[in-house]
Amino acid sequence: MSIPQIGASGAAPLPYGLSREELVKNRRQSRPTLIPRGRVLFWEGEHQPQKIKIVEGVIRAVRLLENGNRQILAFYWPGDVVMPTRSSCQRITAEAVTNCRVQHSAVSGICQQDEPCGAHQILSETLALVVTMSQKKSVARIADFLLRIRNHLPEDPRRPFALLLLLPRADIADHLGMSLETVCRTLAEFKMKGLIDLPNRKTIRFVDLPGLLRIAGD
Amino acid sequence: MSIPQIGASGAAPLPYGLSREELVKNRRQSRPTLIPRGRVLFWEGEHQPQKIKIVEGVIRAVRLLENGNRQILAFYWPGDVVMPTRSSCQRITAEAVTNCRVQHSAVSGICQQDEPCGAHQILSETLALVVTMSQKKSVARIADFLLRIRNHLPEDPRRPFALLLLLPRADIADHLGMSLETVCRTLAEFKMKGLIDLPNRKTIRFVDLPGLLRIAGD
DNA sequence: ATTGGCCTAGACCGAACGCACTATTCGGAA
DNA sequence: TTCCGAATAGTGCGTTCGGTCTAGGCCAAT
Asked: What is the CATH number of the domain that holds A198?
């Protein structure tokens, strides 16, 4: 779900011509900010002039719907950088899935040659999502998703070889376009088949990667 | 499915510094080109430096998959302008659904402030698609789709109040993420309920717009 | 200990798929 | 034009997937 290839490097080079005030402000902003779980970083349609680097935690890019439902378009993980977009093109809301530490920093401009804007970032995710949703059954979707988030999950300090599954089931469901129950059922099925282990709700251990890969293939 | 608000105006202002040869070439390119049904305008990953204005016919933006399946992300209609993108970000293939007349013309640059690039264009479509696919049942999806394409369909010269449905059933299915059979069945159901009339395969008459709207609502 | 959020499980049921087959239309050749 | 084969469209039927509903369990925070 992440876009490691886009702007995943460190802070932006400072644009020339900033006043001292701006430089100070910039420096201050480059210190990590704490975001509590559930807090909105920016709203759909709102201008978000800076890029946001995630140091710790998970952010979700979400589309809120009239009927109260939502579609989660992407998750952003530590190391990912959420790029800004023109407000007229800001089509997503960003919320903290967990408590987060993030770094805001300035960009030299919206959508430069070397720094594609948030639209490219979210497009990449969304295209993959459309294809997955229209082509794969829910079992394959979940297997695929688990494999994709695997590299981003932190280790469980208390259980060797186990990872902390930071996302609640509802978020997985709202991302993959299925019901919470289907997510549960499928995870239980995977556990039964020995593909994964779920010592508890928040912990996952990947047991049979090739098996998952095969299921994810279709 | 179209993006009338983006760059739907005429030809681009000519960039300065073109040689006479280039000017001539440019002028020639601004004459309509004929594209036969099924022909590819540009491939995924291929750099497409010019914008393409559709004069007549329908273009589909498609993502080809390994297994031979495809996902149609958007249709472009007369008056729409397909904007270029950096080749690294060119994530779609464009094909002619019907015979087409198009006009190529230069743009001053990729993704300017006043001319968002193709990424924004396709993102807008794709976001709507994801939401539709994950939230609505197939009946609602088709009703919604019919209403959306209605304004773009040309009139049937032989039947009053009837429009030419230029898209084959398979294209509708591959766009909305359902099987060809479901499209057929649903259209038949709409006809039976008096929502639309289908004098023949290629012709549609919208009979009960409020009814369709209600179904599309969900 | 109690509450509330989140997760699990099973029963039930309708929507959509896939297959098999038929019908219609299109487009090129005679 | 007329014919024919291929492509496209339509339909009936059984099956399976996944949503909804319900009831209950686990666990952390109060």
From this structure: 1.10.10.10
